[in-house]
Design brief:
Layout (H helix, E strand, L loop, with lengths): L2 H24 L3 E5 L19 H6 L8 E4 L6 E5 L21 E5 L2 H8 L5 E4 L3 H6 L3 E2 L2 H11 L4 H26 L4 H12 L11 E4 L20 E10 L2 E10 L5 H20 L6 H18 L7 H6 L54 E4 L2 E3 L2 H4 L13 H7 L4 E3 L2 E5 L4 E3 L8
Parallel strand pairs: 1-5, 3-4, 5-6
Antiparallel strand pairs: 1-2, 2-3, 7-8, 8-9, 10-13, 11-12, 13-14
Helix pairs in contact: 1-5, 1-6, 6-7, 8-9
The protein binds glycine and manganese (II) ion (2 copies).
Length: about 425
């Protein structure tokens, strides 16, 4: 067995164990997961780029729609592979992928044949979007209690999954280095995007999310989507871009100040780089993620004070909500098959929700940090006119240096984002070995 094959073998053994437990707890004998059907845009004949059902991807890295996976405790998983003869789209043969030996695989040429082979198993649950066929096969559709248990387990990554995410960070790091070089040579957002894509060696729809490539003030738009071709020689680049390996994502952000950038903003960028590494060092199993987020606000408030932007001690600033307009998103989120991976707001395996506190509504995870989790750490500091506006007139207005804020607003914002594996003693940064700064 190759290393990857043995990692995958252990990954599937763990899937078998946790699925058996979840099925027993929810009263099912079997689980059927389909890779899913394509989504066709309304009133159109064009399909969206295909994303497999995440629960299918958790078991099997095989691409494409309509495959069926059948899991029964105590038996090898059965994979019904949809492999049509086709002249519209290229259909690649299965070959001998490292993962194939974990499944009993049969190939079918039509979707109808796939479901015929499945039959109508008793006491079986179904996860996927081929709901009409699943209903006809007498399966229970997407049962919430079972799905929640499987989602809960997905936050605990196997060594195979960590390997996939780290390989994705290696690939993304290549893109980040090329993007930075293009920026420093004066490239536009569109050219920086092309430099990234070319270095990673993919096409756009193979990215795990739409890259954010923002020059100057656009860095303050958290999910800025455009790629301007007509703005060059930026002062600041904020680039949030990832990559995918075997269905697992990397999610990395870097902010770079050009030599001609306002030195006060460049100093803030340097401060945020240190601050982010300090926060990574604070990651420890047992800490509620909400406490970690609070630490992030304290650190950002301290930086704002140090740079003369806020005139308040960090504790007081956070208490009064003065750091929130500068840092309006969560400190991070679980990462895996989905970029914003599942179950961050689950309070228990059964699906009980643990919503974020009212003062931090955008926090994507309220879980307790545990060894085996992979999440992002991504503090941000932005000059967002819409969020700062109310503070210009309220009782706290004297706590801000508005002149300095107005002078730095054209520089946009700063985000530094790494991908971390939590270990029993702290963390392993999956990004920094490949992208040191
Ligand atoms: N790339 C989106 C995020 O950082 O959450
Ligand atoms: Mn990101
Ligand atoms: Mn992120």
């Amino acid at each position: 067995m190759t290393d990857l094959a043995s990692l995958f073998h252990a990954h599937i053994a763990e899937r078998q164990r946790t699925a058996a437990e979840a099925l027993a707890e929810t009263g099912f004998d079997a689980l059927v997961i389909s890779s899913g059907q394509v989504y066709t845009h309304f009133a159109d004949d064009q399909d969206a780029p295909f994303h497999p059902t995440p629960h299918f991807a958790h078991w099997c890295p095989m691409a494409g729609p309509h495959h069926l996976l059948v899991v029964r405790p105590g038996q090898r998983p059965r994979l019904i592979r949809y492999a049509p003869e086709d002249f519209w789209y290229e259909q690649l043969p299965l070959g001998s992928p490292f993962w194939a030996s974990e499944f009993d695989i049969e190939e079918v040429g039509t979707v109808e044949e796939a479901w015929k082979r499945l039959g109508s198993p008793e006491q079986a649950a179904y996860i996927g979007n081929e709901t009409e066929r699943a209903e006809a096969a007498n399966l229970e559709l997407n049962p919430a209690g079972l799905t929640a248990r499987l989602d809960w387990n997905r936050t605990n990554k196997s060594a195979y999954e960590v390997q996939c995410i780290e390989e994705a960070t290696v690939l993304a790091s290549r893109g980040h280095l090329a993007a930075r070089a293009a920026f420093l040579a004066g490239a536009s957002e569109l050219e920086i995007h092309y430099a990234y894509i070319q270095a990673v060696g993919i096409v756009d729809h193979e990215m795990p999310y739409g890259s954010i490539v923002a020059l100057n003030e656009k860095g303050a738009i958290l999910h800025y989507e455009h790629k301007r071709a007509n703005v060059r020689n930026g002062d600041v680049l904020l680039i949030d871009a990832g990559a995918q390996i075997r269905g697992y994502a990397a999610d990395i952000t870097r902010t770079v100040a050009a030599p001609h950038c306002d030195s006060r903003f460049a100093d803030l960028v340097a401060g945020m780089v240190k601050l982010e590494l300090g926060l990574c060092d604070a990651v420890k199993p047992g800490m509620p993620y909400g406490d970690f987020h609070h630490l992030g606000h304290l650190a950002i408030a301290a930086l704002l004070k140090e740079h003369g932007i806020l005139k308040a001690d960090p504790e007081e600033a956070v208490e009064l909500g003065l750091s929130r307009p500068f840092f309006p998103h969560g400190l991070g989120h679980h990462l895996g098959i989905q970029v914003h991976d599942v179950a961050g707001r689950q309070g228990a395996p059964d699906g009980t929700l643990a919503p974020p506190p009212p003062q931090h509504p955008t926090l994507r995870t309220t879980r307790t940090i545990e060894a085996g989790q992979v999440f992002t750490v991504e503090p941000g500091l932005y000059f967002i006119p819409m969020l700062l506006r109310p503070f210009r007139e309220n009782e706290h207005k004297a706590r801000f240096d508005w002149k300095l804020i107005d002078e730095l607003t054209p520089c946009g914002g700063i985000r530094i984002e790494d991908n971390l594996l939590v270990t029993s003693s702290g963390h392993r940064n999956l990004t920094r070995p490949h992208l040191p700064n």
